[in-house]
Amino acid sequence: MTVTVAHALPADLDALAALFDAYRQFYGQPADPGAARDWLRQRLRFGESRALLARLDGEPAGFAQLYPMFSSVRLARVWILNDLFVLPAMRRRGVARRLLDAAAGFAREDGAAAIQLETTRDNAAARATYRAAGWHEDATQWYSLPLC
Predict the structure, then answer these.
(1) How far apart are CA 108 and CA 37, in angstroms?
(2) Do residues 3 and 98 touch, judged by C-beta distance below 8 A?
(3) Residue 91 to residue 63: CA distance in whole angstroms
(4) What span, in angstroms and rounded, lies between the C-alpha atoms of 91 and 59?
(5) Which helix (H) or strand (E) holds 57?
(6) Residue from 82, 75, 142, 73 nearest 115 by CA
(7) Do residues 113 and 71 make contact, with C-beta atoms less than 8 angstroms apart?
(8) What is the pLDDT along the chain (148 residues), one digit of tens a residue?
(9) d(Cα 117, Cα 35) in Å, to the nearest integer?
(10) Can you say whether the dihedral through the CA atoms of 17, 22, 25, 27 is positive or negative?
């Protein structure tokens, strides 16, 4: 088994969109491959996000998508690892770990002060994966105000 991770290129859009649509369905959204593709195309076209595509033995297996933000206190860029997904049939083969490592490597090379993510408290599998990759829960308390 060989896991490779690379920055998604325009030629990867169809494979990435299929994974992104599966990710959204995992979180209860209806299947909408066209909207998933359009969303990704716009984010990538305008540099609003960076996407990493993982392949297991050459087959698309998972992806990570990062969005930039800035820390005024640190006077530095911070990347948000907003999306991380591995197809269920491809899990427990090191794909998520490789995506996490690649995301951290990208942020480091970009000169970012940090990379952050959020997950639900009951997502024990994801939390264990993050901890095993060297991530830790911080003391920050996030608040959310739904607008629609």
Answers:
(1) 28
(2) yes
(3) 12
(4) 13
(5) none
(6) 82
(7) yes
(8) 899 999 999 999 999 999 999 999 999 999 999 999 999 999 999 999 999 999 999 999 999 999 999 999 999 999 999 999 999 999 999 999 999 999 999 999 999 999 999 888 898 999 999 999 999 988 887 888 889 8
(9) 24
(10) negative
3-state secondary structure 20-32: HHHHHHHCCCCCC
Give the H or E element holding residue 140.
none
Rama region for 115: left / alpha / beta (φ>0; ψ in -120 to 50; rest):
beta
Strand order from edge to edge, sheet including 114-116: 3-7, 50-56, 59-71, 76-86, 114-116
The pair of three-digit structure tokens given for residue 19, joined into one six-digit string? 């994974």
Please name each of the domains of the chain with its CATH number: 3-132 (3.40.630.30)
Letter for the amino acid at 124? Answer: A
